């Protein structure tokens, strides 16, 4: 695991740390080719410089975010924001369904919107895959 991501996870309370560690390990397993780093203070995985998945500690949960998740057509993911992102929130490690997560990670590779160039395109998203 990326040392900065491990440091982020270690800074969480025990229950949230368990969620973060599980998410990081499953994301690394599902997207072994992805670059990962702390981006805007949160762990994020990138494919060809484009953010695809990450997680963050919220006040009451750990939020798993897929930048193109609304396009996955998955009932378990909730719409987030005004672009194409979708999320799942967890309050306990046993809530993480690793089969669902593996499927979402596959879709995050196959279905992508171009967030890398959103500023250059003045807020307009274009589909990459």
UniProtKB/TrEMBL annotation:
The YdhG-like domain, residue ranges: 17-107
Family annotation (InterPro entries): YdhG-like
Superkingdom of the organism of origin: Bacteria
Protein name, as recorded: DUF1801 domain-containing protein
Organism this protein belongs to: Chryseotalea sanaruensis
């Amino acid at each position: 695991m990326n040392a900065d991501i491990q440091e982020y996870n270690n800074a969480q309370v025990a229950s949230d740390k368990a969620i973060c560690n599980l998410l990081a390990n499953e994301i690394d397993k599902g997207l072994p080719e992805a670059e990962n780093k702390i981006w805007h203070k949160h762990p994020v995985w990138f494919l060809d410089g484009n953010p695809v998945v990450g997680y963050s500690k919220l006040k009451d949960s750990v939020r798993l975010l897929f930048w193109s998740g609304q396009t996955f057509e998955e009932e378990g993911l909730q719409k987030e924001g005004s672009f194409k992102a979708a999320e799942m929130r967890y309050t306990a490690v046993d809530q993480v369904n690793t089969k669902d997560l593996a499927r979402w990670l596959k879709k995050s590779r196959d279905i992508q919107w171009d967030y890398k160039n959103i500023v250059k395109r003045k807020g307009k998203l274009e589909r990459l895959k």
